[in-house]
Amino acid sequence: MDEKTFGRLLREARQRALFTLERLAEVSGVSVRAISDMERGQSLPRQATLRELMDPLGLDEDERRRLVRASTRSTRQVPRQLPPDLAVFRGREEALTAVHAITSQVAARCGQVVIAAVGGMAGVGKTTLAVHWAHQVAKHFPDGQLYVNLRGFENSGRPLDPGEALAGFLGALGVPSSDIPRGTEERSALFREQAASRQLIVVLDNARDADQARPLLPAAPGCLTILTSRSRLSALATAEGASLISLDVWTQPEAVAALAARIGAKRCRAEPEDAARLVELCGHLPLAIAVVGAQLSAEPRMSLRLAARELAEARLDTLSAGDRRADVRAVFSWSYRALTPDTARFFRYLALHPGSVVSAEAAASLAGAEMTVARRHLGELTSASLLSRDADGRYMLHDLVRAYGTELAEQEQDDRSAAETRLLDYLRHNAHAANHFLDTRRGIEPTEPPVPGAVRVAIGNREEALDWFGQEEPTVAAALRSLDDPRLLRHRMHLTLDWQTYFAVMGRWAEEMTIQRIGLDVALVLDDPVAVTRNCAGLASALAQTGHVDEADEQVDLILRQLHRLSPAERAFAERSVGWVRSRQERYTEALDHSARALALFRTLGDSGAVGRELNAVGSYRAMLGDHRAAVASCEEAIPLLRESGNRRDEAATWDSLGYARHCLGDLDAAIADYRTSLRLYEEVLDPYNQAEVFDHLAAVQLERGGHAQARESWIRAADLLKAIDSPRAAQVRAKAESPPQP
Q1: Can you say how many angstroms the Cα of residue 67 is from the centroid of all Cα atoms in its chain?
Q2: Fewest CB atoms within 10 A around its CB: which of 346, 542, 551, 681?
Q3: For 64-87, what is each residue's pLDDT tens digit?
Q4: Above 50 in pLDDT, residue 247?
Q5: What is the CB neighbour count within 10 angstroms for residue 476?
């Protein structure tokens, strides 16, 4: 944020409260001049001053959070999301002249919102032009570049939801996941707020229509928005003033120049008529020429005359379309037939991937191939221009290439169900393995090993686990959304359960709610009480974490209706989950009742680690009810059990609970010692969020003992930890350091 954004938010809040500057100064104790400077974007308040301003304005929690975030002086994240520029970009002189004239409007600070929509048929080079343009002018937009493929024309018929795209943009701009609203409209408003003070390039690729693109427009004069679509998007020109750029196929000179850039000018000069014939057979379509150029580069001794004759023969392929300009199947078939049989098979299976980007491991799983073999196939397909790479090194198929590959898979009667099963098993079993480095809670063990061909990834630590989850998150979202074969229902249900931990650990509550709702719907169809309970627990947790505690009641009721159908172990998990939700709702008596029932069940199961975890929960709820001595007794019983089971994270939580109970009993020295033990354990297990929470608790005890300097240091440590993980609580905790509360 910057001063202008904060000033606007403060002024709007004051006006909603019907306060004049003088009245706000009177009730807050902040001078009229200081408030005026803030509203005019001349300064930002100290956190203590901010509280004095917010308290009399009657702000709700969301409004307070936005003001706190806007007042925080922080280093901005600069996203770099553009795909690589094409080194052999040629032609498009007229279009480039037009787009650079559009860019000059931003440079001139004309105050207009600058939007350009590049339209044209599939394969005509819209994305290539948009990315090339963005790379050329990126230096004029120092706050970075955002890019998203909106998948407007995928075979699945399911374009990317604008809300999902907005979540990616907001995360790239540094907004903590826990601070991203659930609704698309609210996300769009927050995105516009974030972009208002930035100079960004926003590339919205492959938009279905204006309605899909509109929520993603930054609407800021300092930003350049570039859209591509097969639709003309005239509605954006009418309502938003977008400049429309229509791309047609290349002229013959442009097409020959592009072919020469790929295979060498000398080769084209040696056979000029055949070079012209080749690009004519490609319909002068950039995508087709790229594929032919890649094939000829791989065959440096092939004459262009022979290539033209073979391509002409390929036009008799039964897949050929009627419109010669749109007939790229013939070009693809010519390139496809040049592949080795194994690579051709790999290509067909790769086309079955449900998302827009695919990792090497996911591709190998789809095809049931060893990784070394898969990488060789991927290299061959990339060289043939049937694949490209994104900014993160994952592989992308143009949607025309994907459609062609899917048709071939159907013709060859490839086993689509087996490929999708391998993909889901790859995503599930590796998630299950990665979860061991993220959480210590018991998950649902797979009853069967992964099917043959599903790749197993070597994951050795927490960082590698998080990297793998981040790499495959787009694939999981696409798989859950698109793979609707009834035979895969149980696989999809299990997948939602194995990805719970990642979204919870990362605080990705909006994403967790999405997948848990999918999993819950499937579990209800399959009438699986365990999966119903687990998905309800995850959904209720995410709702409670985002402040929607009342909405969690529906999930709690559904959990309670399953109890009689559950095994003792699952019933214990269910009671524990309900207790946690009730605690978030501050219904501590109910929380204690459910937790006590869970504890009794865990004791009968002989699971010492689970008993230790639940003893801590019982102790925590007792402390909140004021029974501090009983809380100490529960926590002291828990610690040796947790230590024996190796559960350091829950042991750290238990020392924190002990510290709180002893603080309430007035035993300040013991409380400080407990908190320091908790801090050490949380540091060992790399849990900065809970470490910050304990520093906050420790500071309160230090302040009560009169150690103002020590308390301030603890709050600063807490704020630094929270800021490092983009937690919205960082500003709130730093405010305590700047203006400590009274003990």
Answers
A1: 25
A2: 551
A3: 777 877 776 555 678 888 888 877
A4: yes
A5: 26
Q: Is the pTM of this model over 0.70?
A: no
Q: Which residue from 364, 371, 485, 467 is spatially nearest to 417, judged by alpha carbons?
A: 485
Q: Cβ neighbours of residue 413 under 8 Å, at least 6 residues apart?
A: none
Amino acid at 63: E
Distance of CA 680 to the CA centre of its chain: 31
How far apart (Å, rounded) are the C-alpha atoms in residues 443 and 331?
49
Termini Cα distance of the chain? 32
Alpha carbon distance 724, 743 (integer Å): 28
DSSP letter assigned to residue 320: -
Decide the pairing of beta strands 388-389 and 145-149.
unpaired
458, two tokens: 């070597």
Lowest model confidence (mean pLDDT) among 55-69, 225-239, 486-500: 55-69
Distances (CA, A) of 365 to 132, 371, 406, 453, 633: 33, 9, 17, 6, 51
β strands within 11-81, DSSP E: none
pLDDT on residue 424: 94
Question: From CA 743, how far away is CA 741, in angstroms rounded?
Answer: 6
Q: Rounded to the nearest 5°, which phi and psi values hold at 226?
A: -120, 120
Residue type, 18: L
Q: Any idea which residue has 């995360």 for tokens?
A: 171
Question: 381 and 343 in contact (C-beta within 8 Å)?
Answer: yes
User: At residue 493, what is the residue type?
Assistant: M
Q: What Rg do the C-alpha atoms of the chain give, in angstroms?
A: 30
